[in-house]
C-alpha cells in the first residue's frame, strides 16, 4: 500500500470513528468539550492564563510586545512578497526549480511517514508557543481569554485561543496589534534559537 493510500485510509477511519461515536452515544464527545461539525472537529477547554497577569503594566513586557507586533508585520509582508513573486514567476513560465516555493506538509504526499514523528514534534512546539503567546499577550493587555483548544479541519490540524471579542474590539489599536503579533513573533524567536542547534546537529552527521 502506498503512503498516500495509507494516509487517506487512516484519515477516513479517524472520521468514521468520530462520527460513529457521536451517533451511537450522542453527547459523548460534547461532554468532553469536543464539537463535531464535519469536516471540522474542535476540542475546547477553558483557560485563564492567570500567570500572565503578573506582567500586566510591565514596561518591559510592553516593549517586548511592541517589538513582537513590528516583527510579525515585517514577516507577514515578506511572506506575501515572497509568495506573490513566486506565483508571478511561475505564471510567467519560470521553472519551479528556479523559483522555489512553499510546500504544504501532507503525510503520505509531501512528507513520508518515516519523518512524521519529527513533523509532529516541531508542529507541537510551534503551535503551543504560538497560542500561549497570543493568550498571554491578551491577558497582559487586559483582554480576557475564554478558552483554548485544538481543531482538525478535514486533515489539517490546528489550535486556537479564544479571546473575549467584546473586550478585544474595545481595546486600543496598539493592544490589538500586540496580541495579534505575539504568536508569530514567538515562533520566530523559537526558530532563531533552535535553527543553529538543528544545523549543528545535521552538519555533524
Automatic annotation (TrEMBL):
It is found in: Endomembrane system. The lineage of its organism: Archaea, Thermoproteota. The keyword Coiled coil does not apply. One of its GO terms (cellular component) is endomembrane system. GO terms for biological process: membrane protein intracellular domain proteolysis. InterPro entries: MBTPS2 (IPR001193), Peptidase_M50 (IPR008915). This is Peptidase M50 domain-containing protein. PANTHER family: MEMBRANE-BOUND TRANSCRIPTION FACTOR SITE-2 PROTEASE (PTHR13325:SF3), PROTEASE M50 MEMBRANE-BOUND TRANSCRIPTION FACTOR SITE 2 PROTEASE (PTHR13325). One of its GO terms (molecular function) is metalloendopeptidase activity.
Amino acid at each position: 500500500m502506498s503512503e498516500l493510500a495509507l494516509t487517506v485510509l487512516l484519515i477516513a477511519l479517524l472520521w468514521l470513528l468520530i462520527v460513529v461515536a457521536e451517533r451511537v452515544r450522542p453527547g459523548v464527545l460534547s461532554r468532553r468539550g469536543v464539537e463535531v461539525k464535519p469536516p471540522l472537529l474542535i476540542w475546547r477547554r477553558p483557560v485563564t492564563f492567570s500567570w500572565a497577569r503578573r506582567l500586566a503594566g510591565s514596561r518591559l513586557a510592553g516593549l517586548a510586545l511592541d517589538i513582537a507586533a513590528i516583527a510579525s508585520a515585517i514577516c507577514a509582508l515578506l511572506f506575501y512578497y515572497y509568495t506573490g513573486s513566486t506565483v508571478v514567476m511561475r505564471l510567467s513560465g519560470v521553472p519551479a526549480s528556479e523559483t522555489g516555493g512553499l510546500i504544504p506538509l501532507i503525510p503520505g504526499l509531501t512528507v513520508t511517514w518515516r519523518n512524521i514523528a519529527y513533523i509532529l514534534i516541531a508542529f507541537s512546539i510551534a503551535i503551543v508557543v504560538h497560542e500561549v503567546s497570543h493568550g498571554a499577550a491578551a491577558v497582559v493587555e487586559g483582554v480576557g481569554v475564554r478558552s483554548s483548544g485544538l481543531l482538525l479541519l478535514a486533515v489539517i490540524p490546528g489550535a486556537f485561543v479564544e479571546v473575549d471579542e467584546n473586550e478585544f474590539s474595545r481595546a486600543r489599536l496598539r493592544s490589538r496589534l500586540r496580541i495579534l503579533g505575539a504568536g508569530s513573533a514567538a515562533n520566530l524567536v523559537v526558530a532563531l534559537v533552535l535553527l543553529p542547534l538543528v544545523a549543528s546537529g545535521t552538519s555533524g552527521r
